[in-house]
């Protein structure tokens, strides 16, 4: 929900001047590193374009003065001189046009290259982040802001730097012309532009704080937009008739965002009008002065025209330059967010062990606790147990008892807050990440529905490194997806998801079969971790798959709410509120008449009968 309308976001920090200069240089460095010829081309044309306005003003003066001379003398030579200057003016204007077009072309190339380069940096960074970092809401906000502005801001900043340089050179040339008349004329140009500059810089800071501070609302808005258009949310949304509520939330959010924009832009516009009036008054005072001096006979008509033109263009150029500086400052603020994101320390994966110090020991958990960042109580506490190779371990417990968290710790995706987890005698953090990951084949909860081909959905189990159709089909068979793949018109090549024109949609159970096939592709992993692997399968398929998994001869860690699935496990660990409350075989736990037995009895007549049989 949107916050109070007048939330000022004043507490959001903006970077210091020193940091800002550093960011600017890094952005230029990025351009240089990506395409130095493009950078050189833009810089060269910028300098040429910067000098042309002063040249044009000078040529205009020469035309007027030579025309007046020709009128006075009536000589053919003077007439030819005037025509010569007209031809020069045509050349200057044509060059201006050509250089401007060339610059626009090169800058469009730069925008595309830089947008890609920055997006690449962002994705390289997010791909190196670990799971807790990606689950951190503050980091997610930084990523969103960086992604939103990746294509525009770094290019914007570089463009503003070039523009500022161009305007600065033009100004120096204008100043040189004005100086010949009077140094005061240079001062008039400066006095007219500076107030606007300070106002723009001030508003750039406000805008940045607004955009940064409003990221939660922007995220909610984009979520509501997805909710109103996505096919996956459509069945529930349509059925629950939630549309008016969702739309009204969206409208509420929009008017809050719009109200803030309006207030800020209205203040910006009124300041711009007021300062524009000040600039005009200064300009016209300068013009009156030049006119009076000309009437007094101290300058020629041509000089007067040139001076007035230069005075006006000088003021415009200064205000464009200062607007570029203000805009560049605004770009820089967003880039500071980008660089803050890029500067986030990456998770230290310092482990190098390719195998454990006691091969064959399996997993050992010693007094493990884990708390999610910001959580007020640990998700797991005092967890100790062993899993010897080849053991089949069942994990059971109510929703939120910590089962998924526990298997993610075993996979090394989270690090225990305290305690130790070892695999073959070596702590997980000391393992080489690739070697550790290669030990486990996993069905995740929730599993992904990749909007790729069927083959790629399976190949993701080995990071898309396996492309051999025979291996993919074998995994499909072992994940009970063989008949499904055979039935699809293009087999492994079938594109999934209706989002694509030629894409096919699958049922929940069919998607789950592909997720199972993905896990089963990892034939070299000696540990199979299955987090609710059969929740979407029909009973026949469920029994068939679990039987298959049991025959795999690998360590099996199985999470299931259907306790009958765990009957064959060598050991069952029962979790409650993040703690182990019971362990034992199915029969032992049934006989103990504790938590497991209670859960088991609650699962209906069928399970109770088979439990009684086991007693
Ligand atoms: N990514 C997360 N960030 C913060 N807290 C989380 C996260 N995932 C889970 N939790 C919290 O940790 C606790 C344990 O969650 P976990 O998913 O491990 O339970 P579970 O036993 O697998 O539940 P279920 O049977 O519903 O799948 C819950 O209180 C949950 O709210």
Automatic annotation (TrEMBL):
CDD domains per the record? ABCC_MRP_Like
Tell me one GO molecular function of this protein.
ATP binding
Where is this chain's protein located in or outside the cell? Cell membrane
Q: How does it sit in the membrane?
A: Multi-pass membrane protein
Q: Where are the transmembrane segments?
A: 37-60, 81-99, 169-198
Which intervals hold domain ABC transmembrane type-1?
Answer: 40-198
**PANTHER family under this entry?**
ATP-BINDING CASSETTE SUB-FAMILY B, HAEMOLYSIN SECRETION ATP-BINDING PROTEIN
This chain belongs to which protein, by name?
A: ABC transporter ATP-binding protein
């Amino acid at each position: 929900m949107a916050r109070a309308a007048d939330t000022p976001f004043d507490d959001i920090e903006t970077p210091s001047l020193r940091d800002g200069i550093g960011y600017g240089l890094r952005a230029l460095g990025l351009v240089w590193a990506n395409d130095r010829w493009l950078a050189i081309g833009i810089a060269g044309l910028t300098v040429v374009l910067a000098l042309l306005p002063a040249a044009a003003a000078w040529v205009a003066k020469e035309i007027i003065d030579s025309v007046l001379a020709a009128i006075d003398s009536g000589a053919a030579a003077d007439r030819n001189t005037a025509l010569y200057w007209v031809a020069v003016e045509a050349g200057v204007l044509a060059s201006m046009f050509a250089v401007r077009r060339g610059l626009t072309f090169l800058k469009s190339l730069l925008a595309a290259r830089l947008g890609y380069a920055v997006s690449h940096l962002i994705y390289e960074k997010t791909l190196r982040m670990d799971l807790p970092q990606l689950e951190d809401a503050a980091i997610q906000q930084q990523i969103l802001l960086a992604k939103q502005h990746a294509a525009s801001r770094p290019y914007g900043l570089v463009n503003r730097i070039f523009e500022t340089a161009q305007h600065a050179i033009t100004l120096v040339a204008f100043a040189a012309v004005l100086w010949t008349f009077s140094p005061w004329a240079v001062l008039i140009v400066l006095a007219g532009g500076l107030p606007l500059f300070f106002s723009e810089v001030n508003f750039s800071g406000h805008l940045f704080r607004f955009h940064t501070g409003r990221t939660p609302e922007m995220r909610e808005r984009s979520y509501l937009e997805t909710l109103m258009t996505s096919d996956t949310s459509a069945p529930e949304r349509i059925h629950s008739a939630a549309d008016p509520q969702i739309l009204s939330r969206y409208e509420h959010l929009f008017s809050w965002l719009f109200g803030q924009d309006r207030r800020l832009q209205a203040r910006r516009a009124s300041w711009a009008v007021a300062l524009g009036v000040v600039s005009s008054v200064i300009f016209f005072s300068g013009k009156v002065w030049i006119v009076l001096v000309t009437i007094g006979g101290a300058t020629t008509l041509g000089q007067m025209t040139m001076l007035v033109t230069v005075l006006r263009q000088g003021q415009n150029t200064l205000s464009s330059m200062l607007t570029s500086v203000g805009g560049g400052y605004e770009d820089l603020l967003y880039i500071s967010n980008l660089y803050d994101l890029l500067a986030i320390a990456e998770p230290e994966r310092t482990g190098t062990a390719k195998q454990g110090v006691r091969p064959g020991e399996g997993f050992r958990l010693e007094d493990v606790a884990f708390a999610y960042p910001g959580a007020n109580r640990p998700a797991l506490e005092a967890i100790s147990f062993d899993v010897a190779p080849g053991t089949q371990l069942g994990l059971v417990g109510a929703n939120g008892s910590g089962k998924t968290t526990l298997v993610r710790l075993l996979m090394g995706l989270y690090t225990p807050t305290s305690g130790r987890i070892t695999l073959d005698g070596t702590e997980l953090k000391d393992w080489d990440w690739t070697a550790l990951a290669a030990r486990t084949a996993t069905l995740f909860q929730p599993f992904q529905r990749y909007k790729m081909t069927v083959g790629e959905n399976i190949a993701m189990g080995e990071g898309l490194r396996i492309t051999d159709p025979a291996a993919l089909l074998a995994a499909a068979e072992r994940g009970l997806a063989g008949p499904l793949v055979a039935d699809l018109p293009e087999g492994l090549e079938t594109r999934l998801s209706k989002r694509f024109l030629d894409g096919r949609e699958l049922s929940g159970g069919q998607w789950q079969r592909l997720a199972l096939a993905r896990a089963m592709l990892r034939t070299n992993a000696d540990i199979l971790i299955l987090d609710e692997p059969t929740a979407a399968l029909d009973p026949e398929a469920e029994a068939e798959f679990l039987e298959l998994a049991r025959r795999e001869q690998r360590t099996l860690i199985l999470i299931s709410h259907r306790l009958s699935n765990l009957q064959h496990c060598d050991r069952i660990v029962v979790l409650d509120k993040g703690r182990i409350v019971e362990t034992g075989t199915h029969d032992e736990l049934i006989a103990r008449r504790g938590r497991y037995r209670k859960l088991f009895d609650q699962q209906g007549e069928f399970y109770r009968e088979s439990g009684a049989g086991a007693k």
